[in-house]
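Q&A log
Question type: sequence-to-structure
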Amino acid sequence: MRIPFIKYNHQKHLDELGKIQQNADQYHIVYEPEAYRLALLDHIYKAQQRIYIVALYLEKDEAGKEILDALYQIKQQWPNIDIKIFMDWHRAQRGRIGEDKTQTNARYYYQLKQQHPDIDIPIYGVPINRREVLGVLHLKGYIIDNTVIYSGASINNVYLHKLDKYRYDRYHFIKNKVLADSMVSYVDNNFLPLDGLQRLDVEKHKSRKQIKNEIRSLRQHLQDVNYQYTSNADNDTLSVAPIAGLGRNNALNKIIHHLINSTQQKIVFCTPYFNLPNILVRDIIRLLRKGRQVEIIIGDKEANDFFIPEDQPFNISGGLPYLYEINLRKFIERLQSFVDKEQLIIRLWKDADQTYHLKGIWIDDQWVLITGNNLNPRAWRLDLENGILVHDPKQELQNQFTKELNTIREKTTLVTHFQQIQASQFYPKHVHKLIKRLSRIKVDRIIKRLL
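Response status: OK
Response body:
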């Protein structure tokens, strides 16, 4: 009698979650990064009331400048429009690894502000923890008037496919005033009033030490808050529900756990880094033993944004894709019997030298989670994450969700045996040496928890 109670309990959490009614004809998915960039610009140029940009970073490259130029143009045209930008405080104050430390994104924001002294578009840095490695602003979602534009993509050339390279993600456009208001209110009520929030578009920034108490207070505050809205949908209606989470036992983690365990037929996961928290591994194994089908779509190690080609200088971060691949090989070997029965489906995404950044969960043609959560220990414990849970009981959006998944699968290879995954002894010598050294002193476990 115990198993039915557990099943009921997981479904009960989903049923009782407050939901916002969504019109199907106001929910649109874009399937390519270049089309996403053009649609994002189109929404910016048509904005009349508000534009809130919340992302990990906005880079000082062609795509970043294109977005900022559009924002300054629309602010000049409509001075009363409410435009605010929120970035991770740490990430904005450093360049890419190996770049000139003085030419940061934050420096560019300041220079741009000096070029437009009569136009004020505040760019804020949100410090989630005292050090970047211990937590970043991983919240997603741009609010333009009453449309929420949700993607895991940050703003730069690769994410927006401005030049030759692209990083593949999900691109959802949801017109819904209640949803948009709730996401704006979250920022207005939980970022703006707190002293930890810092302007990035200024000449000098405070040090971590100077604002350590403010950062601590901000993090503690964010662990206890979530999106606020009035539920107006029942469980027979197409609906959306925004969820935020920071810390081990947060609301988003709990919903992901309940979603997985409510699966009756099939679940599909997308994640760029195969480094699942232990609780999710246990959940997946539990589903397999119950006869459910599990499909996992992961980026090939060469499609990982940390991957470093052999002809380029190597550093320790370049070992991460190999550590994730080792995880995957062990996982498949452990569950090979389910792979043989085609109950566990593993797909690797690869498109030449392009990269893969997709995250999300699809369950039983009923539930879809769009999120920036990487489904890894870092997302589970350290970063401020969010997601939008879509409940589609009448399959009103099924064609779009099916097309999204089929488009993702087009560039994947099916893994039918763990030996298809390269064994570590065949890695490049410098990689093999690094991994052996890390494993010997158990630093690899720490790295996988933090990166």
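Response note: The two ends are 41 Å apart (CA to CA).
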